[in-house]
């Protein structure tokens, strides 16, 4: 929109009118994107906070799948931005969902640990399933990687025949 404003100062007449229309379309599109982004934030984060939202997610997915999903929260959680909360929640959701869809696990662990010395928050999703076994990463793993990048966090995925571990680590800002 700033570029459109700059261009509109450099031209006159009919081109200025077209740029004004383009600017309005861009503004409207930006509002639509912001509205969609607001709706993508899980309500449970606002209602329950990250730790309880993850517990609710684990309970819901465990009940629907019949697979035991254990939760472990250790240490006081650091103050997180709303964006960081969404990243941790969505990575946990994708990690558990991938395990349920592809790994045939008997058990999944979702852990959230704060390092008392550094304040670093770590999310771990570990399953005892069959592992990735050379399968090509799909949209779910790509989405987790992109979310971690947005946060400046580190995402590691380790897999072998005894299961897969997804770990997301972020330092407080």
Give a description of the structure.
- The chain is α+β, with helices and mostly antiparallel strands.
- The chain has 2 domains: 2-40; 43-170, Histidine kinase-like ATPase, C-terminal domain (Heat Shock Protein 90).
- 54% of the residues lie in helices and 21% in strands.
- The chain is built from 6 helices and 5 strands.
- Strands 1-2-3-5-4 form a 5-stranded mixed beta sheet, covered by helices on one side.
- Strand 4 (154-160) and strand 5 (163-170) form a beta hairpin.
- Helix 1 packs antiparallel against helix 2.
- The mean pLDDT is 89.
User: Beta-sheet strand percentage?
Assistant: 15-25%
Give, in order, the helices and strands.
HHHHEHEEHEE
Number of helices: 6
- Please name the CATH architecture of the largest domain: 2-Layer Sandwich
Which secondary-structure class do the elements indicate? Answer: alpha+beta
Instruction: Kindly report the spatial arrangement of strands forming the biggest sheet.
Output: 1-2-3-5-4
Radius of gyration: 21 Å
Estimate the mean pLDDT confidence: 89
Low-confidence segments, ≥5 residues, pLDDT <50?
none
What is the fold named in CATH at topology level of the largest domain? Heat Shock Protein 90
Number of domains: 2
Number of strands: 5
Shape: elongated
CATH class of the largest domain: Alpha Beta
Cα(first) to Cα(last) distance is 29 Å
CATH superfamily of the largest domain: Histidine kinase-like ATPase, C-terminal domain
The percent range for helix content is: 40-55%
> Tell me about the biggest sheet?
5 strands, mixed
């Amino acid at each position: 929109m700033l570029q459109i404003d700059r261009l509109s100062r450099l031209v006159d007449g009919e081109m200025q009118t077209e740029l004004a229309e383009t600017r309005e379309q861009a503004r409207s599109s930006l509002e639509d994107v912001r509205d969609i982004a607001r709706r993508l934030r899980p309500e449970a984060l606002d209602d329950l906070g990250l730790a309880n939202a993850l517990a609710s997610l684990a309970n819901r997915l465990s009940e629907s799948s019949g697979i035991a999903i254990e939760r472990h929260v250790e240490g006081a959680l650091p103050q997180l931005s709303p964006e960081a909360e969404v990243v941790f929640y969505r990575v946990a959701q994708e990690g558990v969902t991938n395990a349920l869809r592809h790994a045939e696990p008997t058990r999944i662990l979702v852990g959230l640990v704060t390092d008392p010395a550094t304040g670093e928050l770590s999310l771990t999703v570990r399953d005892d399933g069959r592992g990735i076994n050379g399968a090509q990463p799909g949209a779910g793993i790509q989405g987790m990687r992109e979310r971690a990048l947005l946060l400046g966090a580190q995402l590691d995925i380790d897999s072998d025949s005894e299961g897969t571990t997804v770990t997301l680590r972020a330092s407080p800002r």
